[in-house]
Amino acid sequence: MAAFRTLNDLSPAGKRILLRADLNVPVREGRITDTTRIDRVLPTVEELVEKGGRVIVLSHFDRPKGRVVAEMSLAPIAAAMAEKTRHTVRFVSDCIGPEVEEAIAAMKDGDILILENTRFHAGEEKNDPEFVASLAKSGEIYVNDAFSAAHRAHASTEGLARHLPAFAGRLMEAELNALSAALEKPDHPVGALIGGAKISTKLDLIGNVVSKVDILFIGGAMANTFLAAEGVPVGKSLQEAEMHETARAIIARAQQAGCKIILPVDAVIAREFREGAPSEICPIDAVPADAMILDAGPRTVALINEQLAGLKTLVWNGPLGAFEIKPFDAATVAVAREAARLTKEGKLKTIAGGGDTVSALRHAGVADQMSYVSTAGGAFMEWLEGKLLPGIAVLTDAAQHVVPL
Ligand code: 3PG
Ligand code: MG
Q: What's the pTM?
């Protein structure tokens, strides 16, 4: 990975710093259900204000599509952030314009100002130069700490880095270092555990991963497609018949690259997809025509866990079964706990990310026992696909042209 500048390269004292955070936290019925993204960006905010910076926080929240949508205001999230820090936090109900200018003029060193949802303006997602210029007026320095939004080439994630001296925040730095340790220069042998429902959404990801890792464990409904492609009957299981050829091509490519693919050898099957549905365990080649695979079976878990013991690095994206409904969470939980145990013993480095993955690890009670858990969903996936994320590209680019501060 090319170099990028961090807070180590920055003297924030007395400066107006535009900090792009990702405060796009999950909210249900008006309540924040998980504050991870707030918690993980706070060290950057606090470091900057404690060094005398004036921190102006920018973020999107949800997808208001260029209009002001009251339920998508950042105000409640700003309030939650204010509660978590002893520094003064103010909120302004726009991210550009006279009210913002006034608030910024009134800022003192060490103050925090949170601005309203950048996506209330259509210019944000369009990366419109005029909108970028309006945002840029508010600051002298740009710090991007929103790795989880770095796959978007928006005004506040990409455009600003072209206008102001640009730096990675501490969370961005941690994410980039962890991801680089996972796939760019990892300790081998490296395994990837890729689960989830559909190959079609993870095709590029699997294609990239097989050329980098030594073992690929495939789980979730995605495994059914691989099995069916190899002629194993999967009954009524979720699978993508139109992806069989692609699945076979991936297997061939993995063989060429020397990547061992491990598919389930047994399954937990049921006739209904609901919590507590009666279930049985069967060998993978004995799935009845009227049954569906809802989880990997115990022999598969044993096989994966045995292989984990020989690995130095594990990248985890996606669950092994329908972990949201019991008892189909068993395989995901058992493998997650084994990965956590090996990690705790210092034998394995585990890097996990992607929306469902974090909930699955949390469900297993081990989300805080991995070596690194990314705050990103889509950005983590695109990174695993081997794509250069626009928000990262511009930061590394900015590091090449050192702008005097
Ligand atoms: C995310 O939650 O993945 C990021 O905040 C990006 O949000 P988006 O998918 O709405 O661009
Ligand atoms: Mg999203």
A: 0.91
Is 40 assigned a catalytic role? no
- Quick check: CB of 129 below 6 Å from ligand 1? no
Query: Catalytic residue at 377?
Result: no
**Buried b / exposed e across 93-103, counting CB within 10 Å, b at 16+?**
ebbbeeebeeb
Give yes or no for a contact between 312 and 278, defined as CB atoms under 8 angstroms apart.
no
Chain centre distance of CA 177: 14
Q: Is residue 13 a contact partner of residue 51, using CB atoms and an 8 Å limit?
A: yes
**Which of the following is catalytic: 198, 271, 299, 312?**
198
Q: In this structure, what token pair is assigned to residue 316? A: 């985890």
Round to whole Å and give the CA distance between 202 and 40: 27
Residue 258 among the catalytic residues: no
- For 36-59, the pLDDT digits (tens) are 999 999 999 999 999 999 999 999
Q: Does residue 230 have a pLDDT over 90?
A: yes
Q: How far is the CA of 151 from the centre of ligand 1 (A)?
A: 9
157 lines ligand 1 (CB under 6 A): no
Q: Express each pLDDT in 122-138 by its tens digit.
A: 999 999 999 999 999 99
Express each pLDDT in 151-205 by its tens digit: 999 999 999 999 999 999 999 999 999 998 888 889 999 999 999 888 788 888 9
Q: How far is CA 191 from the centre of its chain?
A: 18
Yes or no: say if 296 and 327 are a contact pair by the CB < 8 Å rule.
no
Task: State yes or no: is 198 an active-site residue.
Answer: yes
Whether 343 is in the pocket of ligand 1, judged by its Cβ within 6 Å, is: no
Asked whether the CA dihedral 176, 182, 184, 187 is positive or negative, the reply is positive
Which positions ≥6 away from 300 have C-beta within 8 Å? 264, 265, 266, 267, 320, 331
Ligand 1 close to Cβ of residue 371 (< 6 A):
no
Tell me the CA–centroid distance for residue 277 and ligand 2, in Å: 31
